[in-house]
Amino acid sequence: MPLQMSLLMLGTLAFSSVACTPDEVEDARPTPTGVPVQAIDHAGPKPHNILVIVIDTFRADRLGRGLTPKMDAFASEATVFNRAVTTIATTMPAHASMFTGLAPNRHGVRWNGDELADSNLTAVEILRDAGYETAAFVSKTRLLTQAGFHQGFSILSDPRNGRAPLNRSGEEITAMARDWICGEPRKPFFAWVHYNDVHSPYELNDFAKEQRGDYAGVLAEGATGKTLLANSQEIASSPEDMRMLNALYDGAVLGVDRQIGNLLDECPGDPILEDTIVILTSDHGQLLGEHRELLHGGKLWEQALRIPLIIRHPTARPGLTADERVGIADIAPTLIDLGGQNIPAGLQGRSIARAIFGEEIEERVYVSEVKREGADEEAALGPADLAVYDGHHKVIRKAGEVKIYDIANDAEEVQPIPTSQSQQLIERSQVLMDAYSQADTGAVSVKREELDPSTIDELRALGYIE
Predict the structure, then answer these.
(1) Rounded to an integer, what distance in angstroms lies between the CA atom of residue 241 and that of residue 233?
(2) Half-sphere exposure of residue 341, counting CA atoms within 13 Å on the CB side?
(3) pLDDT tens by residue, 148-202
């Protein structure tokens, strides 16, 4: 691919939009966000409801392995995107990309202590202004109470700036969401349901206990994030520890799969979900000893960056697959598009709605980042380490070292391609990485929250801080 084409693709990634201009919007009405919307005609056909399910820390490779019968059944009725990636393997920045259609260098959320600034326009706000009733039921409550993702939602499982447990169980979130979805008839709804069950800490449930056998190591009774951080090198170097860690993770996957099944059961006497667009995805994955590493923060490996993305549309043909590369930042413009609204100019993501109906979408370059490790707080906001997805190649720049992988044939990233054979690809990716870093406009809008001691203790238990 010529270098000029790569730069054009980066420009498309960063600055283009498939939206029409405000002058082209017929019957648009002013809104609190200033973005014209197509107001829902409540006397006409009811638009489809939209339900977005996010399973925090869920690896795409767990689907189709006997661990997820409910999600596999759902996938058989939907379109499965086989090559979806996140912008960053960290919860809050990734969610910010999902809701804004922007990369972290534009929306400004670079780690789990940042708050999405009100100046960022979210897909939820656009749908709310168009007439959708909006609700969020979130297991990791800080996403609503402190991280800024309350924007656009009328109903919240936990109030803004209110006191709440750090996490709610999957069972509790499912019950809250179903009580609302299956309630009285209402105007079209948009709901976000978030599960944290696959994130550490990992309990020794029945599945993990059965898999444990005579194992008596550090993970024999489960694992907190603190345990994984403190013993990461030892666990990642021990086949038995890794086997047990995978058993704990898979046990959590089995549990959240049951919750997805319960959530998607039809409401008694009301087939409301038959008329609902359902999107199932994750914010990022998790390393379970691959590359001798654990967890996800600061990782650029496929186990951390690749995510599931499955979309079921009431009128689309079931059982489709899409093999073009897509990203988490594509979800926001897709939501806007599916909601019948015009996509604002300037989004880095693009609508992939056409793929739901079997149409091809263009291949694009995608960039994923991590914050700089070992730097002071302000310097850490700049992306020093990046991954560029370019066709079937992935170029990783980590701590100044560049490696290239053919992930179509080496999905586990075991054997890098000799750089001597890939000078053109390295040069092209270097230009893209430099352009990405130079386009960093979002950090100034971030408001960093102050964490109280109890919150710090809870975050330490989850493995976010040492």
Answers:
(1) 11
(2) 28
(3) 999 999 999 987 766 677 789 999 999 999 999 999 657 899 999 999 999 999 9
**In which element (H, E) is residue 112 found?**
none
The number of angstroms, rounded, from the C-alpha of 62 to the middle of its chain's C-alpha atoms is: 16
Which residue type sits at 128?
R
The Cα–Cα gap between 365 and 363 comes to: 7
Determine the Cα angle at 304 with ends 350 and 299, to 5°: 105
Q: What is the largest CA-CA distance in the chain?
A: 69
pLDDT at residue 19, rounded to an integer:
29
Instruction: Count other C-beta atoms under 10 Å from residue 332's C-beta.
Output: 28
Collapsing DSSP to helix, strand or coil, 364 comes out as coil
Average pLDDT, the chain: 85
- If you search the block for the tokens 């994130």, which residue do you land on? 199
Which of 64, 104, 109, 56 has the alpha carbon at shortest distance from 82? 64
What pLDDT sits at residue 4? 35
- Residue 432's pLDDT band (boundaries 50, 70, 90)? confident
From 148, 113, 90, select the one nearest 451 (Cα to Cα).
113
The CA distance from 46 to 277, in Å, is 13
307/302 Cα distance (integer angstroms): 9
Provide the token pair at 185. 């008839």
Q: Within 10 A of 268 (CB to CB), how many other CB atoms are there?
A: 6
Partners of 223 in beta bridges: 202
Task: Provide the residue type at 323 as one letter.
Answer: D
Per domain, the residue ranges of the chain are 3-462
- Cis preceding-peptide flag for 47 (omega within 30 of 0): no
Q: Are 97 and 287 in contact (CB under 8 A)?
A: no
Q: Which two tokens stand for residue 9?
A: 């693709």
CATH no. for 3-462: 3.40.720.10
- Give 244-307 as a DSSP string: HHHHHHHHHHHHHHHHHHHHHSPBTTB-GGGGEEEEEE-S---EESGGG-EESTT--SHHHHEE
Structure tokens at 356: 């739901």
Place of tokens 């992939």: 352
Give the closest residue to 29 by CA, choosing from 19, 39, 21, 20: 39
Q: How confident is the model at residue 272 (pLDDT cuts 50, 70, 90)?
A: very high
Distances in whole angstroms, Cα of residue 249 to Cα of each of 199, 204, 221, 346: 8, 10, 13, 38
CA-to-CA dists, residue 363 to 25, 44, 220, 343, 357, angstroms: 28, 37, 45, 20, 17
Asked if 62 contacts 285 with a C-beta cutoff of 8 angstroms, the reply is no
- Per the CB < 8 A criterion, the answer to whether 272 and 49 are in contact is yes
